[in-house]
Design a protein that fits this description.
Blueprint: E1 2-6, H1 16-30, E2 34-40, E3 53-56, E4 60-62, E5 65-67, H2 71-74, E6 80-85, H3 91-100, E7 106-110, H4 118-137, E8 141-144, H5 147-150, H6 156-161, E9 166-168, H7 185-190, E10 199-203, H8 215-227, E11 233-237, H9 243-252, E12 259-263, H10 270-276, E13 279-282, H11 293-300, E14 305-308, H12 313-317, E15 321-324, H13 329-341, H14 346-361, H15 363-378
Parallel strand pairs: 1-2, 1-6, 2-3, 6-7, 7-8, 8-9, 10-11, 10-13, 11-12, 13-14, 14-15
Antiparallel strand pairs: 4-5
């Protein structure tokens, strides 16, 4: 089967949507399908070459919104098209392509609601009210990472009206890459970490598109831990234009010796950073966070998680750690304190979260279900 995936961002940009598409394309390719990923060519010089990617130069581009005008003709050569929503500038082009090619199956994965402060947030609300129903309505099959999320999302009315079109299919994790290991001494030494003290880990984007990740809340929680003389270390992996602001906040809270911003890291080192952690923290503040791929990476690495009570996110973390109120640094600090303060059997927790990742979120199982959906649509 010849399959086209369309997504607004893709590695080397670090983000959940692009990573999902890369892993999906890899697994489908292993099953013998011809997969091509269409994504914008951002920046100059061009981004590095990543497998399956066909980068198209946008006619218009703003942030991760881009209009790929050439794509409508290109898609005619494929057996099935899979759009990853949201993709401002191009999603409506796919709807128009589908109108002209009704016999070609179109699958749309609804990744997340769009959230932003100020005027951009108003634009997102208008788009969700007027254009999103038209775009999602053009699909033959709609995929949600969880019914928990979609039932409280901006797409909930579409879900309630057309439940037969929707399929719950969680995202997955590479359980061969992310595995439990001993804490890597090289990274402990590189960052001056004390292996005798608890190490907390955050992994995520620090750009405006990922403002909802909640890093300021996490830093305030670290401040409360320090005030209560609870010694912990926090490692933050990620980069973006907000990073310097976060570094200044950490300094203002007197956390320089406890909080380490490592920035962007080589992709082949990422799994080892998870092995540094005793506890993984994802303190997202709103439904811009719909799932939390990093939670799966931590779980597959045998690391329990703490995250916030948001639809979709809480379902992933339900059996793998602790859930707290969003935007509440005091409760987050208490959860962290409780985790290390109680008489917990750490090896048992590690085994539990690893087993959950293997049984429920391994990519080979997820993509096997996706392949069955594709075959049903094309009549294979």
């Amino acid at each position: 089967m010849k399959i086209a995936h369309i997504v607004c961002s893709y590695p080397p940009y670090y983000g959940g949507m692009g990573n999902v598409v890369f892993q999906t394309a890899s697994a489908l390719s292993d099953l013998g399908h011809a997969v091509e990923v269409f994504t914008p060519q951002y920046g100059n010089p061009p981004q590095e070459d990543i497998e399956y990617a066909r980068r198209l130069k946008p006619e218009i581009q703003y942030g991760q919104a881009a209009r790929l005008g050439k794509i409508k003709k290109i898609l005619n050569d494929f057996d099935l098209v899979h759009l990853h929503y949201p993709f401002f500038g191009t999603a409506n082009l796919i709807r128009k392509w589908k109108e002209n090619n009704p016999e070609k199956p179109l699958v749309i994965t609804y990744h997340m609601d769009t959230r932003a402060p100020g005027w951009k947030g108003l634009i997102f609300k208008y788009y969700s009210k007027y254009w999103m129903p038209k775009i999602l309505g053009s699909a033959d099959k709609l995929i949600a990472s969880s019914y928990d999320y979609i039932d409280s999302s901006d797409a909930r009315q579409l879900y309630k009206k057309n439940k037969y079109k929707w399929l719950e299919l969680p995202f997955g994790v590479d359980t061969k890459r992310f595995v439990p290991r001993k804490k890597p001494e090289a990274l402990l030494n590189r960052h001056g970490l004390n292996p005798e003290l608890p190490i907390l880990l955050f992994v995520g984007g620090m750009d405006l598109a990922h403002y909802f990740k909640g890093i300021p809340v996490l830093l305030k929680a670290m401040f409360f831990l320090k005030q209560n003389k609870i010694n912990t270390q926090l490692v933050l992996v990620g980069d973006g234009e907000l990073k310097e602001k976060f570094i200044l906040q950490a300094r203002g809270l007197g956390l320089e010796s406890q909080v380490i911003f490592v920035g962007k890291i080589p992709n082949d080192e990422l799994s080892y950073y998870y092995n540094l952690a005793d506890l993984f923290i994802l303190p997202s503040i709103n439904q811009g966070e719909a799932f939390g791929m990093v939670l799966l990476e931590a779980m597959a690495s045998g690391v329990p998680v703490v995250t916030t009570d948001l639809p979709g996110v809480r379902q992933v973390a339900g059996d793998a750690g602790l859930i707290v109120k969003p935007n509440d640094p005091v409760e987050l600090a208490k959860a962290i304190t409780g985790y290390f303060g109680e008489d917990k059997n750490m090896p048992e927790w590690s085994e539990r979260v690893r087993l959950l990742a293997q049984e429920k979120y391994a990519w080979d199982k997820i993509v096997a279900n996706l392949e069955a959906v594709y075959k049903d649509l094309v009549g294979a």
